[in-house]
Design a protein that fits this description.
Strand order of the largest sheet: 10-9-8-11-13-12
CATH architecture of the largest domain: 3-Layer(aba) Sandwich
Number of helices: 10
Length: 296
């Protein structure tokens, strides 16, 4: 199944009662996870893990909807015992967890990925790509590489990216997604250059102030969430979703009820139905404890 442009949900309802909620959809970084100030790594607090695992025990679905790869998200999925179709790579793939079976995906073309790799080299910026099979590759090791690996727990390999993406290369069919890491002003300039070259053929979104993710057109957390919900037989009106960043907006719009954490950007809060506490204050747990008080 291809994720691009999938549609199949109905119109958005009024506020969802807790008894009607069948799925809790959560972004990870900046929403569900806290950041360890000592080393920059991410972790899930016991309170958040408990609030989500209680929903699983009640028979509700907890769906990760994240920019992370399945491997990078696995410790958090396992902590709450969630299973079934999940959204990874910012919506570029829907994967069954924990089996790892890919249920739907859309690749970024090799032409765009190769252009991005060359652009990063010219701008002296970090760029990496995820290849089919969950392989992480960098054009060069830089300080940003170490920060990203510390934050995600992943380890990538250095590769000659242009050769991977050319005809006959191991990634000639493209990659799952690419990512630039740089200061916001640099990413703004990179965004414009990619957009000027490829227009609507590339979808770009910020998952963090210094992260610019590049995916195929039509890919988004929202479209992928629709696929995941359809595969589970769950309606849009039966879901509540939590997010914090620009790339979460399509996910929030695809859910029956949208909740922004307190640290979310203004654009995210503008599309949310409610706002809870910040991620560092366990905002997801605080919200779930309030609407499901019987388990406290």
């Amino acid at each position: 199944m291809n994720i691009r442009g999938y549609s199949g949900m109905g119109t958005k309802k009024e506020r969802i009662g807790s008894r009607s909620i069948r799925a809790i959809v959560v972004d990870l970084d900046g929403t569900t996870l806290r950041s360890n100030p000592a080393d920059g790594s991410s972790y899930m607090s016991d309170r958040v893990a408990r609030a989500l695992s209680e929903r699983v025990a009640e028979g509700r679905a907890v769906i990760l909807c994240t920019g992370r790869s399945p491997d990078a998200a696995e410790p958090f999925r396992a902590a709450v015992g969630a299973e079934g179709p999940m959204v990874f790579y910012n919506g570029a793939a829907v994967v069954d967890a924990p089996s790892g079976r890919v249920l739907a995906s859309t690749l970024l073309s090799a032409e765009i990925a190769s252009f991005c790799a060359a652009l990063a080299a010219r701008r002296d910026a970090h760029f990496h790509a995820f290849l089919p099979g969950d392989s992480l590759v960098y054009g060069a090791r830089r300080p940003e590489t170490d920060i990203y690996e510390k934050r995600t727990g992943l380890r990538g390999e250095i590769a000659d990216l242009p050769s991977l993406f050319r005809d006959g290369g191991v990634a000639a069919s493209g990659c799952i997604k690419g990512m630039f890491i740089a200061e916001p002003a640099v990413l703004d300039s990179i965004h414009r250059e990619v957009a000027d070259r490829f227009g609507s053929l590339a979808y770009m979104a910020r998952s963090h102030a210094t992260y610019l993710e590049v995916m195929a057109t039509g890919v988004s957390k929202g479209n992928a969430l629709k696929v995941a919900l359809s595969l589970r037989g769950i309606g849009r009106e039966e879901t509540v979703a939590f997010g914090d960043a620009e790339n979460d907006i399509p996910m929030l719009q695809a859910a029956g009820w949208a909740v922004a954490v307190g640290n979310a950007g203004a654009a995210v809060k503008a599309v949310a139905d409610e706002i809870t506490l910040a991620a560092e204050e366990d905002g997801v747990a605080a919200y779930l404890e309030r609407i499901f008080p019987e388990t406290r």
